[in-house]
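We close this part of the discussion by returning to an individual protein. The encoding preserves chain order, so positions in sequence and tokens coincide. The sequence in question and its structure tokens are set out directly beneath this paragraph:

===
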Amino acid sequence: MNKWITTILTFLLIVSTASGFVGLQNESNSENQTNNTPIYTASELVLKQKIVSINIDAAKDESTIRETLLFRNTNFLGEIKNEVTNPIGLTLTKVDMIMGGSPMPMYMSNEGNFVVWQDVIDSVKPLYNLEYTTSKQATISVASPEWLIMTISPIENLYFTDENGKQITSTPVIENDYATYRWENPTFTQLNIGMAPVAYTNPLLYLVIAIVLLASLIYQISKYRVPIRAYVTKINIRMNIEKFNDFMTKRINSIWSRTPLK
């Protein structure tokens, strides 16, 4: 946990961008004044970064997901929402960036697919961490962050589509069996993660093929064995006849000439 938080804090010191948070709707747009300091409403929240870490367990057909949210606003008081699709065992914690990185559990409620909580965002911008499991074919609500960063494992046979089923492409950074994807001001509002099925070949198939080939070879050998043997025998008989004829010719010539055979 501390290692993850340290990594997030280090990354946040490096990356800096700008955009709006879409998905926080049906909220008041009025601006209150307290000591001449504006209090932002939920619809005015700006999501600076959304960092998603995904571990896919194909054997269990599930994904373990952690979403980390960082908002750009300060002086906010009110309701915060984040859309989550089919979460199991959802937890929400808050980490103050200058409080030693200790996660604090947050009370939350559900409104359809949205997780809702109340909080104050001041000059000390907190990190909100949502952790849950879902199916292997995970869906992430993007909500128009300035930066969307996704780290995923395993890295093979993955594909991504948007809310319209259109393929999303990006060149990842590969490190230690993890792929990290980054999108600046993404235009898609939904990121669907899929795994292409891995081709599996049963070893028995190779055994069957080997047996068929061997049987075919044996058949071909047995089919031509008798003709070959008969042909060889015929050649041997012909050679013996020729030798006999040659011997008899020499014998007859020897008798006629009364010359002993050599």
About this structure: The chain has two domains: 2-195, 201-262. The chain has two helices and 17 strands. The first strand starts at residue 32 and ends at 34.
